[in-house]
Design a protein that fits this description.
CATH class of the largest domain: Alpha Beta
Shape: elongated
Structural class: alpha+beta
Largest sheet: 11 strands, mixed
Number of helices: 6
Number of domains: 3
CATH topology of the largest domain: Pseudouridine synthase
Number of strands: 15
Distance between the termini: 53 Å
Length: about 280
């Protein structure tokens, strides 16, 4: 990988004479100890021990001979500030959030401080596990698991298409408000993908659509709508992007799943024009 002063990687094989992680990375990178600690807190430092590699956040963690330290330093990533999400429900084993535009669902090797999972960890003081994703440019409901058992069960529900997912979007072009729901069954990346589209209203050459998806392929809603000639307003990948003068107009407004603890159906809803905190409802049907 090509390194610059603003983006580089450091990898250190730990020997018996290696000092602590902060000193070792500071010496190897030329960064101050404070800068290394900050990168560590933001998820840019990793520790490999045996076959396992995980983020290293504690500066005081003891190293062993044979360990490997990794620093992935990107000034742009580390300088980003997370936008505060809205806590919808803290169910202890999991939490549900209203993710704002620009906040990530999951991090990368360069850091995770701008993710909803890390925000949940820091503000609820418990581990956070990613069980599904919502595009960085999108807004709306996302669930974070806080127990491994809950993470496994929720991941299974998403994987096996048992989760109810509904989105509200604004697109370019006018749908017929009286038309029957349109079922889009275009495969994506060689895998089946199904979306059901209903028009809510039209305005000034644009349409507000309600989209329910039966699958969860990457960028499914965005790709399906662009594919039928109705790109989402503000979509920089499949639409006009910046020329629309707006952020991506895609909001995850409903999320329904089976509570991994109480084993009852729960449903969370947001209204596109009213994001006040909704209450979960049990849904055993």
């Amino acid at each position: 990988m090509e390194s610059t002063k603003d983006r580089f990687e450091i990898h250190i094989a730990v020997a018996a004479s290696t000092p602590g992680a902060v000193d070792a990375l500071s010496d190897a990178s030329g960064l101050s100890r404070r800068a290394v600690k900050l990168a560590m807190a933001k998820g840019a430092v990793w520790l490999t021990r045996g076959a396992k590699t995980q983020r290293l956040r504690r500066a005081t963690r003891k190293l062993r001979e044979g360990d490997e330290l990794h620093l992935y330093h990107d000034t742009r990533v580390l300088s980003e500030m997370p936008t505060e999400p809205q806590l919808i429900d803290d169910a202890i084993a999991y939490s549900v959030w209203n993710k704002p535009h620009g906040m990530r669902s999951q991090g990368s090797k360069w850091g995770d401080h701008c993710t909803v999972a890390r925000w949940a960890e820091q503000h609820l003081d418990r581990p956070g596990f990613v069980v599904h994703r919502l595009d960085r440019a999108a807004t709306g409901l996302i669930v974070v698991a806080h127990r491994k058992s809950a993470a496994a069960e929720l991941s299974r529900q998403f994987r096996e298409r048992e989760v109810k997912k509904r989105y509200r979007v604004w697109v370019r072009g006018e749908f017929s408000e009286d038309a029957e729901p349109l079922r889009v069954e275009e495969a994506l990346d060689g895998k089946p993908a199904v979306s059901e589209v209903t028009c809510v209203r039209t305005r000034d050459g644009q349409s507000c659509l309600d989209v329910r998806i039966e699958t969860g392929r990457k960028h499914q809603v965005r790709r399906h709508l662009a594919g039928i000639g109705y790109p989402i307003v503000g979509d920089r990948l499949y639409g006009r992007g910046e020329r629309d003068g707006a952020d991506l107009q895609l909001m995850a407004v409903e999320l329904g799943f089976r509570c991994p603890v109480r084993q009852v159906g729960v449903n969370y809803r947001l209204d596109e024009s009213d994001t006040r905190t909704p209450r979960p409802t049990d849904d055993n049907t």
